[in-house]
Amino acid sequence: MLGLVAIVLFVPALSQGKAWHGIVPLHSARADVERLLGRPSIDRLEAIYYDLADEKVSIHLSMGRCSDRSGSWNIPRNTVISIWVTPKQLHLSDLKVDFTKFDKKQDDELAYIFHYVDSNEGLTYQVDERMSNFVTLIQYFGTRADEKLRCPSKADAPARRRNRRIPHNRRHPAKESSPASSEDRERSCVQDTTPTESIVAKILWLRSAL
Question: How many CB atoms lie within 10 A of CB 149?
Answer without folding.
Answer: 15
